[in-house]
Design brief:
By secondary structure, the protein is α+β, with helices and mostly antiparallel strands. The chain has one domain: Alpha-Beta Plaits (2-Layer Sandwich), CATH 3.30.70.100. The protein is built from 3 helices and 4 strands. A 4-stranded antiparallel beta sheet has the order 2-3-1-4. Helix 1 runs antiparallel to helix 3. The longest helix is centred in the first third of the chain and has 17 residues. The two termini are 13 Å apart. The mean pLDDT is 94. This is DUF1330 domain-containing protein. InterPro entries: Dimeric_a/b-barrel (IPR011008), DUF1330 (IPR010753).
């Protein structure tokens, strides 16, 4: 099935150890909620604008409700401090229905 909602995260990591803890925990949470990692990379080439993230992640979900459920879940809330404490980041839901 085509994923209709994308979660886009752009990050600059300043604490790689805590960030690694976050990555180890969050993958199972995302997959448990039906999310699929579509891209994860630190190989980013800007072609316009001034934002220069070190890392970008794209996660696909079947619906906005599914994506919101994942990132508002008790499981995610228990680990999101690891991302907040280890990165400067922005995250977006893009609904492509």
């Amino acid at each position: 099935m085509k994923k209709t909602v994308m979660v886009i995260l752009i990050e600059s990591v300043h604490d790689p150890i805590r960030y690694a803890e976050y990555i180890a925990a969050v993958k199972a949470i995302v997959e448990q909620h039906g999310g699929e990692y579509l891209a994860r990379s630190n190989k980013i080439t800007a072609f316009c604008g001034t934002i220069k993230p070190e890392r970008s992640i794209v996660i696909g979900f079947d619906s906005l409700a599914q994506a919101e459920s994942c990132f508002n879940s008790p499981e995610y809330r228990a680990v999101k401090h690891l991302r907040e404490d280890s990165t400067v980041s922005s995250a977006f839901f893009i609904d492509n229905d």
